[in-house]
Amino acid sequence: MACESEKWVLMVTAQTPTNIAVIKYWGKRDEDLILPINDSISVTLDPEHLCTTTTVAVSPSFDQDRMWLNGKEFSLSGGRYQRCLKEIRSRASGFEDEKKGVKITEKDWENLHVHISSYNNFPTAAGLASSAAGFACLVFSLAKLMNVKEDHGRLSAIARQGSGSACRSLYGGFAKWIMGKNDDGSDSMAVQLADEKHWDDLVIVIAVVSSRQKETSSTSGMRESVETSKLIHHRAKEVVPKRIVEMEEAIKNRDFESFAHLSCADSNQFHAVCMDTCPPIFYMNDTSHRIISCVEKWNRSEASPQVAYTFDAGPNAVLIARNRKAAALLLQRLLFHFPPRSDADLKSYVIGDKSILQDVG
Ligand code: DP6
């Protein structure tokens, strides 16, 4: 390593949005490598709102790898962080910045330590896929810092080893995580189905029912489902493969009716699997159920669906409106039925590219 002074610091900052699955990933066939039992499809949210911002820095004066999450130091000892760091380090290439007098060879990276600082602009671990944005951003920023020359597909396979759903956040628009067949996970990665401009009529409204941390993490919830639910295996083998084909078709043709039907059905089946788990897992609450009823009732009163809903491992509703007009009407309905007051269950709303987050809780 050649450098004029030992005082230099190299830094990279990246921002990665979270993604919401419309065909869910739930269940692993390999816990260590994070290999899923079915393909999944997601829509990546607007980077302006629900995203993670990560700054990674390297300097010869750092004596260990360290990380801060939302300003608090966080242990990097977990296997998932270590795996991502190891995978990126093993692909690092040499770097030279004449102005700063910095020259790092491929081998130097083994002995250089990194500092990582990450911020979420949304509730962590409240079923808003914070780990997806977090690991995608970590892998992407480390890859830039260490001059890794891999495409998004290969980087997604590394992010997958941090958190499965993270692999889909490497892309904007719509992404598919291909489960892959290989035991070593080399073919389990995400691809982009369509970019963010392809279907820009859609407006996403998130109704934040609760920003509390969930009781059962996705990781342990899906492990318990794989071990105890029969429905999950039927879903993975018989239901999802067909839905994946239909969802890809719906996205390609911007067919909102099919998109809404598939998204709602898949969310409901995922929660049915949670109920079929022993002991049952309840991610949704009464407010979530009331939101479903409200949307279902409205959709049925129209010639074709106006809004799709989907819920991840938490009570918050992700509502996808077919266009701005439907989003405005949806918001009116939500505000009427669920006024965000401090004593109400529903805390705030986040809408598409314009935030109207009103945290009144
Ligand atoms: C319900 O990706 O958080 O959001 O791979 O164990 O980290 P790990 O789980 P995670 O699970 C996400 C589950 C889900 C559905 C989805 O995003 O596809």
TrEMBL record:
Cellular location(s): Peroxisome
Every Mvd1 C-terminal domain range: 204-361
Broad class of enzyme this protein falls into: lyase
Any single Pfam family the record assigns to this protein: MDD_C
InterPro entries: GHMP_kinase_C_sf, Mev_decarb, Mev_diP_decarb, MVD-like_N, Mvd1_C, Ribosomal_Su5_D2-typ_SF, Ribsml_uS5_D2-typ_fold_subgr
Gene3D superfamilies the UniProt entry points to: 3.30.230.10, GHMP kinase, C-terminal domain
KW Lipid metabolism (keyword) present: yes
Gene Ontology molecular functions: ATP binding; diphosphomevalonate decarboxylase activity
Gene Ontology terms describing biological process: isopentenyl diphosphate biosynthetic process, mevalonate pathway; sterol biosynthetic process
Stretches assigned to the Diphosphomevalonate decarboxylase-like N-terminal domain: 17-190
Function recorded in the entry: Performs the first committed step in the biosynthesis of isoprene-containing compounds such as sterols and terpenoids.
Protein family (similarity comment): Belongs to the diphosphomevalonate decarboxylase family.
PANTHER family per the UniProt record, alphabetical: DIPHOSPHOMEVALONATE DECARBOXYLASE
Protein name: Diphosphomevalonate decarboxylase
